[in-house]
Amino acid sequence: MSTTDPLLPVTRASWYDSWMSAVRADPRRTRLLGILAPIIVTLLAAVLRMWRLGDPHALVFDETYYVKDAWSQWNLGFPGNWPDDPNPGFQSGDVNAFLSSGSFVVHPPLGKWIIGAGMWLFGADSSFGWRISAAVFGTATVLVLYFLARTLTRSTVFATIAAFLMAIDGLAIVTSRISLLDIFLTFFVVLTFWFVLLDRNQRDRRLAAALAARSAGRRWGPVLWNRPWLLAAGAAVGAATAVKWSGVIVIVAVGIYVVVSDALARRRLGVTLWPVDALRQGLASFVLLVPIALAVYLASWTGWLTTDGGYSRHAADADPATGLWAWVPLPFQSLWKYHQAMYAFHAGLSTPHAYASPAWQWPFLVRPTSMYWNQTDGTVEAISSIPNPLIWWGGVAAAIWLIYRFVVTRSSAYAFVLVGIAATYLPWPFYPDRTMFQFYTIVILPFLVLALTFALREIAGAPGAPPERRRTGQRVVIVALVAIAVLSAFWYPVWTALPVPYDFWRLHNWIPTWI
Residue 206: which domain range? Predict the structure, then answer.
């Protein structure tokens, strides 16, 4: 893959060309650019996420569950029940009214531990404290996406554009300014894919070196156990699963990707029995990836396991397992029974909701989620989960284009992005009766952004393209990025509950289902 920044003009002498040539010629300036680019785009993301973070001072949408569960879990070790109608009191500062009895919570604990940490640092009575963890992780997601894109393409420009699009997108901003679980899931999923990519690059180098050193034939390749980045990926995807169970699909997806890419690497390097050889390595990769993911997941339940009051904490005491599972300690048997109840809830969740949106609607952006609405004297304060339409629809179109390009080129970079899209979207359409919401797509967004950035790179033209073609393509890319930025500025007030005139809010309802 080319290491040249593809969006840089190379044919017309200008201050920009001269400056970039000077940067490339001076290693110190190259390093400075590589340092400044992620810092600037991350600071932009932080400002957009943290400005007026405490407004509105109200439990927004599902904050009514996660914020109170997080605070009771922080104090009790498990989510506790609350008295009837606790929100007015909680919002007024009565944050310790939780009961000592365990509440039935249907998601694992890690996301609530993270929310609780922010409340502990900045005050549980502060809406800033409720949301600071989401804002920090949302900002960090932009930075990790930069590093993922940089590792994928070795292009500072490519990585900066991808991170910039994620920084200014509405869905990414909204889910970073409200204490929902999905931004934590997204962070750990993007981190997982970055670690998998680092592992792939390191594995390819080590495998090539090991096979090149052999004087005999290449009937078998080495089984690589020293793969720290694969261990790190296991820990990250375990953390993703400890936030929401959809992380399990990511474990399966990256596991398949690791095995298949191992097989293809061995075939490419001339290993004769590469299918069986890849299976040998696959078993080792399983040992490196899955147990640590399970350990991280179970560690998130430490508070529930080490206390006595959590929901279903002693479910196995009266009915312990027999036979093969009798050796399992009772707390873990109870945890299994709790997981069965959680699964039954998720499998049977089919509750009508005005803003429900099945997965088939997501690519078309049919029904974004209205998370907050307040109207007084012609002034509206609103929070909608709608992404920047140009980024979202452009990303969906780019994903379709990327499938075609992968078929034509067999690019490993295209395959990597498509695996991310498949892992985060394809499972959902198989549950058509389950109640779903459009904001779940935040975990898909980073991979759609990568697809869109690849498409912009193609539009800009390859370094070897005719000069006029590159000049025209680069101008189109610049216009597209400016249009996207302007549209984000237009939507920002209705992503952040800024008071705006009612007619201004109406201008954002391009489709009747967006209201």
Answer: 186-311
